[in-house]
Amino acid sequence: VRLWSLKNLQPREPLRVGSDPLLAFDANVPALLWTADDTGQIAVIDVLSRQEIARHAAHLGPIRALVASSRGVCSAGDDGQVMEWQLKDGQIKLAATVVDVGAAIKQLDVSSDGRWFAAHDVAGKLRVWNRDEPTEPCEISEVASLGGNVGKFAFDRTGRKLAVMGPGQSSEIFHLPGFRREERYRPQIAGNG
Questions:
Q1: Which of 42, 43, 134, 183 has the CA that lies 20 to 30 A from 77?
Q2: Cα separation, 133 vs 139, whole angstroms
Q3: In sequence order, what are the beta bridge partners of 82?
Q4: Could you check whether the bond before residue 21 is cis, i.e. omega within 30 degrees of 0?
Q5: Residues 69-110: tens digit of each pLDDT
Q6: How many other C-beta atoms are found inside a 10 Å radius of the C-beta of residue 93?
Q7: 117 with 93: CB under 8 angstroms?
Q8: Segment 120-153, tens digit of pLDDT
Q9: What is the pTM assigned to this prediction?
Q10: Rounded to whole angstroms, how far apart are CA atoms 145 and 141?
């Protein structure tokens, strides 16, 4: 991984973090870089000292998503689990197993406040849930308008909307809670989401 200084746009010496890494800066401590790899390991690196602080075997297979929120860093992988991690006393600690969706997860997003989660699995299901209300994840069946194919998705900054991109230029925006489809605006996105 190569870090760049935004002050002078000069690269720093590369950091070695593992094979095919995923990266997320900690939302609460910007000098901490979380990494995840295809062996199921997560690590935390202090980018100022360029030292690895902690490493942990997080999943039973490859990690496919790593997302930071104000509550911690969440990972998801082939084991179907969404887990939330925090760094405490120099060690990576499991804060919560948020959910087990029962299938390998391809993509994950978390609202910036850490309240809403969305996961897309290898079976093509898009599930959304509110971690503060202990219920099963709700499958968004309305993505059928996208031909059942989910490309990319993301929460807005407020965590009140979820944009879902399908194949080609199709997309939908859903209001949370309730997954009410935005009828006034359906953006057309170039490419495949």
A1: 134
A2: 15
A3: 76, 99
A4: no
A5: 888 999 999 999 899 999 999 999 998 877 788 889 989 999
A6: 13
A7: no
A8: 888 878 888 887 775 666 666 555 555 557 778 8
A9: 0.80
A10: 9
